Amino acid sequence: MSDKRITEISKFLSMVLRHKPEKIGIQLDENGWTDVADLLEKSNRFGIPFDLEMLKHIVDTNPKQRFALNAAQDKIRANQGHSVPIELGYASQEPPEILYHGTAEKSVQSILATGLEKRNRQHVHLSSDLETALKVGQRHGIPFVFKVFAKQMYNDKFEFYRSDNGVWLTHEVPVNYLKRNEE
């Protein structure tokens, strides 16, 4: 299977498991899980055919670990990034001192005015390392990285969660907890 085909299926999975399950007629439960057999059948009818072996390959090899299969491997979900309401079941955790948020240079002034907002997603996504934040920013244009004073936020009673693939999540980051990364 070509890298191009794997990328196509991965993007499709992101769309239906994070944003538009109704597009192919699947349903996500309250925790974001859907039936693998149903997903495979409806993906095939939608014109994006793949089998269980390919699905397992994508889950296992996705560099961002976007998806998870349950222990029985009969249910799948996206690890984070949903715009549909689901409860991922993550427990609040104490974050490291500093986290990072990658964005595009064109968004900097807006962020400095309002802070980081979840907008149409359930959480603001933060990275534990600068390299990952830079990669995220590059997807949106000329990259720009903010330092987030996560430990200070936590001490000020903001909640943080860590997804199964290591992405830090919070509901917002007010401007006073942001600093332009100068590294």
TrEMBL record:
EC identifiers of the protein: 2.7.1.-
Record-linked InterPro entries: Ptrans_KptA/Tpt1, RNA_2'-PTrans_C, RNA_2'-PTrans_KptA, RNA_2'-PTrans_N
Enzymatic class: transferase
GO molecular function: NAD+ poly-ADP-ribosyltransferase activity; tRNA 2'-phosphotransferase activity
The keyword NAD belongs to this UniProt entry's keyword annotation: yes
Keywords per UniProt: NAD, Transferase
Record Pfam families: PTS_2-RNA (PF01885)
GO biological processes: tRNA splicing, via endonucleolytic cleavage and ligation
Similarity annotation: Belongs to the KptA/TPT1 family.
Protein function: Removes the 2'-phosphate from RNA via an intermediate in which the phosphate is ADP-ribosylated by NAD followed by a presumed transesterification to release the RNA and generate ADP-ribose 1''-2''-cyclic phosphate (APPR>P). May function as an ADP-ribosylase.
NCBIfam families: PRK00819.1-4
Full protein name: Probable RNA 2'-phosphotransferase
Taxonomic source organism: Larkinella rosea
